[in-house]
Amino acid sequence: MIIYLDFDGVLHQDAVYTTANLEHKFIGEGSLLMHTPILEKLIEPYPELKIVLSTNWVRIAGYENTLYKLPNKLQARVIGATLHTQTKQMYQDPYGSSISRFEQIEWHASNNDIKQWLAIDDLFSGYEVNKWPESHRHLLVLTEQSKGLGCLETQREIQTKLMELYRQSQL
Fold first, then answer.
1. In order of start, what are the domains of the chain with their CATH numbers?
2. I need a surface site. Which of 73, 96, 154, 158 has the fewest CB within 10 A?
């Protein structure tokens, strides 16, 4: 089981800008990555679950710099990124960052033989929802940019979808 994880609008509000020296600055309420404890709790029942970073942070700051922003428990579950050419699978993204988030995830999943996955994303604050095919919409937890994982309804949706993925993996 894999979670494709966005940061902005998921782990904190979508209120981040990148400085000239490629640092991420948060200008919203709370702090950067403030919802990581919620994610840790949500995935705790699934020790086999792994994370693939599907955030623009990787493209901007690099894979290693992005990975090390996460708490150790989450870092240990990360196996790669959609916008990174030096993951453990050593794939090369032929599309670059101009493709939609769905296309990035779908390309990564198909090229790494990932059958069971879930994306947690605000899809650039909802602007990319129309680029996510209806046939795959059940694999997406669309977060609200101002709340991210701080929204209880979103947390319940993740729990439900993870339970379903787990049930499917046991068949």
1. 2-169 (3.40.50)
2. 96
